[in-house]
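QA checklist item 7 of 12: single-chain prediction sanity check.
[x] sequence parsed
[x] length recorded as 161
[x] structure emitted
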Amino acid sequence: MSGVESFDELGRRWRTKLLAMNPCIVVTVALGLVLGTACKSIPRDECERFLPAPSAPAPDAKFITNVEPRSFLGVALDSVTKNRLIGVGFVFQDLQIFAYTDSLGVARFRDLPLGWHGIAIRRIGYESRRDSIQVSPSSGTVGVYELPRRKVHTCDVVITK
């Protein structure tokens, strides 16, 4: 057979190539297993999604120390990431007034009546909190609230038309 290899010769050549590639395959599989295991050490939620990294503290957090008398400053944080939350509702039920947290995660109330007042803190996707605060004629009040996420599992929800 002048220009054509026999099946035995062809099989020997392929076996030689496969044996030469085996160390590469072993190294690739081992590297994949090591990297796959390393990724599992990153914190995940109950749906196996990666949790966002905590945010750095705001450099202008001095405003918390400068609270006017008869005022309340509410700060809302995610209990897992410690990030400030935007759009959290702070409601004084007895006074029938409310405010939402701004881009810094802060809700402000000014010129409140003196005494104790009940407040509710709410945001969709988070558990509600209730608290009582005292409004003083000589100093302002600051409340920092960590809101735990609601235990709603929507991992396998598929929306179709």
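[x] summary fact logged: The first helix runs from residue 7 to 39.
[ ] second reviewer sign-off
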